[in-house]
Amino acid sequence: MPELLIVGGDLVDESGRRRGDVLVRDGAIAAVGEGIGDGAAAGPNVTVLDAGGCIVAPGLVDLHAHLRQPGREEAETIETGARAAALGGYTAIVAMPNTEPAIDSPGIVREVRDLAAGVACEVLVAAAITVGRRGEQLSPMAELAALGVRLFTDDGNGVQDARLMRRALEYASGLDITLAQHCEDEILAAGGHMHEGEWSSRLGIPGIPSEAEEVMVMRDIALSRLTGGRVHFLHLSTARSVALVAAAKAEGLRITAEAAPHHFTLTDAEVAAFDPVFKVNPPLRSRADVDAVRAGLAAGTIDAIATDHAPHAPEVKEAPFDQAPPGMLGLETALALALTELDLPIEQVLGLLSWRPAVIAGCRADHGGPILEGGPANLCVIDPEAAWVVEPGQLASRSRNTPYAGRKLKGRVRHTILAGTPTVRDGEAQQ
Amino acid sequence: MKHLLSISDLGADGIDEVMRITDSFVEVSERAIPKVPALRGRTVVSLFYEDSTRTRLSFETAAKRLSADTMNFSVSTSSVKKGESLRDTVETIEAMGIDAVVVRHGSSGVPWQVAQWVDASVINGGDGWHEHPTQALLDCYTIRQRLGSLEGRHVAIVGDIKHSRVARSNVLAFTALGAEVTLVAPPTLMPPSLAGWPVTVSHDLDQVLPKVDAVYLLRMQKERMTEALLPSLREYTSGYGLTMARSNLLPEGALIMHPGPMNRGVEIGADVTDLPNTVITKQVANGVAVRMAVLYLLLGSGADLVA
Q1: Could you tell me if A15 lies within 8 Å of chain B, comparing CB atoms?
Q2: Residue B262 burial (CB < 10 Å; 0-12/13-18/19+)?
């Protein structure tokens, strides 16, 4: 493996910002410092990556990606999803367990890990809280935790049964794992296809009230208080959900939360064109909700930006709005959306995309840590000023369901380095 | 204008234009041979994903009276049952060479999607709970025929507003033409939000009836009972049904309207349909002339309107 020299960038990590070159050898950071790359020339044993005008940061970590394998390979595979992730600056992504079959047993965890061997991004496997994600019986959490699974979720559905969720939290508290909840009361949400409000009323589309999310956020905060268990809230979408989380954190409960890029960039007004590419769950909400999610990210109430990358094949997204499946692509646009749309310093944006989610994912030893000699060489190099236009046909995902087609964004990944090897170089995927 | 998807595509001026053309076609409809050659050689397809008798027949009659060729695609006998997607179906039909397609679908927004995929003109024949623009046009025409104008008139729309495409299109059309609209329904049958709707709301029909120039009753569907929206149909009728006794609260000359099909004895008293101010069959008759006007407006050359 040739040495890598990342030259001319500004290093940004949890400790702040400084100038510096980075030398990578044998998958680890061998040296960090200003001027160590001066006069370096590429050769058979040295690859030089230009980071001029760029930010060199720990690789991004996505808490929430649907890689669709096994079961929905026409929409995405672990390989294509990982390539999309690398292009988005990610070195680690959490694969959601709502595959077919669901990831709810050691055998399927091993299968997914085998499929993920050698892909462009580390794939951390989340497992289901309940068998088959059916909300009836706990999955073998201890066995799965022993395999290294750190996040458990029935994502796609929330655990509806409050007593079962209580037991899951109690059981989990002995295992150093986190339960991640998709907050949605299915009875309140039943039949809905978009946010319930002004636009659903006008468009004649059955709505999903904000309260369908909020009652489960409230319930799980109460259950965390009852059990002492750790709860991570997936894709928060409403203003009151953000306020509930802020209050729970102030109380000292073990609560974390994420928000998806579409919930801080798009409103329910987008549905007016009836294009199912804007159908997602939780749905796009009102302007006030979008503003609250942004404020929650700025204040740190929301710990992480997570993509909820949810590929769907074109033909299923061309169905009538109420028949199309929910979900949007996210891995290749999340960073640029955060840089373009959130009025936050880049250090804070990267905290939301890298070191803070790395803690929640339980992978902080390998991803998101400070850029120091001896540390793992999982890095991304970002040109924060690069302007580009989202073109669905140019994305590496196997699917095309991005709601941002044609949108001008600022900020693009120039290089991504996974375990010392470039997975993206000069904006091009390397495998 | 290429498509008729929403009443808002027309605006007040567009509605007026449809009304003007409709006047000519009402005259045609009264002839011994009610047919003109205006759309000879044009093909109009009805693509109906929902059961509908009156709208489909009304469009077909309208197209035939304009000498257009008609094709009828109904889901129960089609490849849709074999799993064909909406887009594939639409593109297959378009490949046969068509000029207009009338789309009826149970999902809101489908005519907008179809319009993205075809070159033909798309007419919304009713989409989900969203819109039914030709129904609103024929309702406007019927009111104007009887009352002269909608300007300054007061119309109450009564019943299941939440699930009604007729109500949504009529609110847009009536208010565009200057009418005041009051929606009357139990709160469970109102849309969750009325922000941006230029209407007033009442839950007391008896209070509203003496003040209106027309009362528009919506069909009450029995399946609403299973969704906990109403305790019973009987309770609905006692509060919101236009019984004979209640119809006496209407001012002299106020119109009684219904888009059909009616549930007699539920939203409308069985004998109320026989009152002289009940214009329900007039609505149906005007439906043909209004749809002729819409087809003519979208497909016609502008010449030989009623030759």
Answers
A1: no
A2: middle
Give the tens place of pLDDT for each residue, A165-181: 999 999 999 999 999 99
Separation CA B231–CA A288 (nearest Å): 35
Of the candidates A33, A38, A93, the one whose C-alpha atom is nearest the C-alpha of residue A60 is A93
DSSP string, B46-86: EEESS--SHHHHHHHHHHHHTT-EEEEEEGGGSGGGGT--H
Question: Residue B83, Cβ neighbours under 10 Å: how many?
Answer: 7
Tokens of A167: 């037991």
Q: Is A287 on the interface with B (CB under 8 A)?
A: no
Task: Give the whole-angstrom CA distance, residue A388 versus residue A333.
Answer: 11
Superfamily holding B7-131+286-299: Aspartate/ornithine carbamoyltransferase (3.40.50.1370)
Q: How far is CA A10 from CA A17, A19, A377, B268, in A?
A: 7, 4, 16, 75
Residues A332-382 have pLDDT tens digits of 999 999 999 999 999 999 999 999 999 999 999 999 999 999 999 999 999
Same fold, B7-131+286-299 and B133-283: yes
Query: How many structural domains are present in chain A?
Result: 2
Instruction: Decide: helix, strand or coil at residue A11.
Output: strand
Rounded Cα distance between B251 and B272, Å, is 15
CA distance B276 to A338: 65
pLDDT < 50 positions in chain A: none
Evaluate if residue B307 carries a pLDDT over 50: no
- Among partner residues B107, B109, B193, which is closest to A198 by beta-carbon distance? B193
Nearest CA in chain A to B130: A204
Q: B108 in contact with A at a CB cutoff of 8 Å?
A: yes
Contact B168 A202 (CB under 8 A): yes
